[in-house]
Amino acid sequence: MIISPYLEEEQKAYLVEKWQEAAGAYSIGPKQQEDIWDLLYAAYADWGRHYHNLSHLYNLLQLADQWEAQLEDKALVQMAIFFHDVEYNPKSKDNERLSAQFARQQLRKPLGAKKCKQLEQYILSTEKHAPLLDEPDCRLFLDFDLAILGQSWSIYEEYAQAVQKEYVNWYNFLFYKQGRRKAMKSFLDRPQIYYSAVFREQYEAQARENIDREISQ
């Protein structure tokens, strides 16, 4: 997985391709596609984003491609990926609601009220990383978002350092570490971190090992 605020041109082209794929599935016209993409790109390319950035989108979209056969509505999951962190302010506790609101503003007409509500619930599920809809796609989307936890320690450490960089400009270091430790311990306290059997089998043990190692430091 890539943990970087910068992407190669080929990787940026991949993001555009996947955006056009998802938007095309809902018959969003070229002009609207371009306008929305400009907003998404500006948000995720913001200088303060060290983890929740374009690379994060790239990683999740790669997972959606990898697990495409398991998805019932890949385009909706792609939309959830593109919009779930569009609003991201380390000082705010309202990022998920604002991201869902932004998605509704941009997509309600092409997606329709029912599908847009479904998308909002996917995005809101990331607040506590618990599915608000009892749907396989919602569970897999959340597993994509947490797949970083189950990577090798070197990648996990790079991820943890990137998240820290997003917060240190706003919070005292010790205050951040206390909050981070509490948040990560909450994952260990769960009976399972991942909601799908395939992700539990592939990532659960490594994720718990990584989290335990981080909070023990």
From TrEMBL:
InterPro entries: HD_phosphohydro
SUPFAM superfamilies: HD-domain/PDEase-like
Record PANTHER family: HD PHOSPHOHYDROLASE FAMILY PROTEIN-RELATED, PTHR21174
Protein name, per record: Metal-dependent HD superfamily phosphohydrolase
Organism: Saprospira grandis (strain Lewin)
Lineage, highest ranks first: Bacteria, Pseudomonadati, Bacteroidota, Saprospiria, Saprospirales
